[in-house]
Each structure stands twice: as structure tokens, then as C-alpha cells.
User: What shape does this take?
Amino acid sequence: MITELEKYEKGLSHCFDDEEIIAKKENAVIECMKYNSIDPLDSKARYRQLKLMLADIGEKVTIESNFNVDNGKHIHIGDNFIGNYNLTILDINHVYIADNVMIGPNTVITTVGHPLDPKGRREHVSITGEVHIGSDVWIGANVTVLPGVTIGDNVVVGAGAVVNRDIPSNSLAVGVPAKVIRKLENNVDD
Assistant: This one.
């Protein structure tokens, strides 16, 4: 029989109050406290702590305090990343962030949701979906990115948006729910 932790690790629906899952969350809370207590001017110590906390981390990664995660080991960040104040990533499932991404303050990226039926919620069921964020993306302040979403390359998500569906590359998306309102030029030659 598959355990709740094995379900969790495979991105399957699981019971979030399983003891092994709670231990992972508690560890993440401790690691976030360590990160957030490091002198904000000590970029080397902050980077070392991020390398310990996260699955993968590129070069030139800056994340301001307060940074909070659910696991940490499901977060993959590329090069040249800026996460502004109060970034929360609920990484029950994997979050993949490519290169040259900027995320505004008070943003939430979540890979987890819960059932619409009360029985499932009473049983503490979590339902998850990976989040993918492409290269050259700017996510404005107070944005929420929901489970299972893919944001393409060269995308700008306006402040306050709720991203509940995929956003294609070279797009400006705004609103609740986020909708593409125009195409963006990609003026970078790779």
C-alpha cells in the first residue's frame, strides 16, 4: 500500500496531516526562519541557505524577506532571479522557474488546492499540480499563481492578477482571473 508521503512525493492527492508530511512542513518552516534571520546585506550567506533549502538554484538569485515555502525541495529556480518581499511558494508539488524572472512583493505561487466537497476537506485532502514559469517573466505585486499553471516565456502578469490558467509566451495578462490583453514583443536574441 502506498503511504501518504509517497503520494505527496509523487504529486498525488494525499492527506496533509500525515505525520511524515507534517515533519517536512515543520522542517521547511525552520529553514525559512533561518533564511529570514540572515542579515539582508549578507548575500553570500543568504545564497548558501537557499542552496540548502531548494532543489535547484541558479546564479544571481535574490529573494527578500520574508520568504516562505511548504517544502523547499520542490522549488527549481534558474539564473538571474529576483523575488521581492513576502514571496510565498507552496511547493507541495514542483515549481519550475526559468531564467531572468522577477516576482513582485506579496506574491503567492501555490501547487496545492483542496476538494470542493466538504467530505474531502474534512479528511484534509490536498490536490496538487506543478507550476512552470518560463524565462524573461515579470510577475507584478500581489499576484496569485494557482496549481497546474504554465506561464510561458516573455510574459508580464499585472499586479493583483490571479493566474488560474496557462498564459502563452509573449503576453501581457491582467485581472481576476488573469486574461491576456495583448501580445508582447520579444526583443532578446538568444
Observations:
- The longest strand covers residues 179-183.
